[in-house]
Write the structure tokens for this entry.
Amino acid sequence: MSEVADPAHTLEFMATAEHQRNEFADEINKLAKRKTKPIAVLLSGGGNDFIDRLPLLLNEYDPKTPTLNEVEVNDFAANHIEKFYKEWLSFVADTCNQAFGSVDRIPIIVHGYAYVVPDGRGLPFYNDNWLKKEFRAKGHRDLVQNTKTMAMLIDMFNDVLCALAGNKPFDNVHYVDLRNTLSNDLSRVNGKRIYKEDWGDELHPTNSGFAKVVAELSTVIDGL
């Protein structure tokens, strides 16, 4: 298995940065020279885009106003997520076709995100959180409601990917829905919130959570 991913980058960077493109193309060309055709290419991205855009997606708290800014959410979906996934997918497909031919195309796998909980937990060495602070900055302090709001955004993200996958020119793209793989259940068992079994912080699963995600992805890859 080869990996060319860089952490903490946005979709725009991953789709357009020259060095990111070159790293992927170099890896594919190395495999082609060895006559080793990949079973599939896994593309994973979008989480950092939520962090960057969340302040714009949230309205200032008002009990009479929706939490999400519908105009900004629609713009984010169409002019960012969809736009850069299309660009990214097109580049990856073209690179693979040039290296291995376009008759038997290499499958490309994309996945949405599971439902996160904006509870303020960051990485141990990270003295800040990603999501909770943005909700608080706009006056949203109810964890139950904020979790529902994040679920709405995650649904939007998944809807975009689902609409792209399997349809020309992306009919070799396979979408994996992970929304029911990890829990966002805020209720408690033996004093511990259920979702914390799956989530190590606001964005990253626990080891057991990652294992569930890997199992879902492996099922799709095994079926190719």
User: Anything to note?
Assistant: The chain is about 50% helix and 5% strand.
